[in-house]
Design goal:
There is one protein chain. The chain is mainly alpha-helical. Helices cover 75% and strands 9% of the residues. α1 crosses α3.
């Protein structure tokens, strides 16, 4: 299974390298559309190679997806934490009841029960 994972990540890396080599031309990225930039009097632009813009977009998509999933799975994590807390409380109660039941009795007789 480990080799399949290495193979998969090798293919992904190879695809990213080919994408990077094929898209080396410089592009201009703007933070605002031209109409808004003219309205506010600011035009923040950055010139980067196209593959950098593509990789930044992919990375940004991954981060947004991870945050979205983390928020979506909150109810499952909260439920798991609640059940773990309840389990610990019940285990403590069982231990307390065992001690109370056999309190003052002979240890051998308590083991037989």
């Amino acid at each position: 299974m480990r080799y399949i994972r290495y193979f998969f990540w090798g293919v992904v890396a190879l695809c990213l390298i080919v994408l990077s080599v094929a898209n080396r031309q410089v592009v201009e990225l703007r933070a605002l559309p031209q109409a808004l930039a003219d309205l506010f009097g600011v035009s923040p632009t950055v010139s980067v190679p196209l593959f950098v813009a593509i990789l930044i977009g992919v990375a940004l998509g991954l981060v947004i997806g991870l945050i979205w999933e983390w928020i979506r799975e909150h109810k499952h994590r909260a439920e798991a934490a609640r059940r773990a807390r309840e389990k610990r409380e019940l285990e403590r109660e069982v231990q307390r009841l065992k001690v109370e039941k056999h309190e003052g009795k002979d240890e051998i007789l308590a083991l037989l029960e």
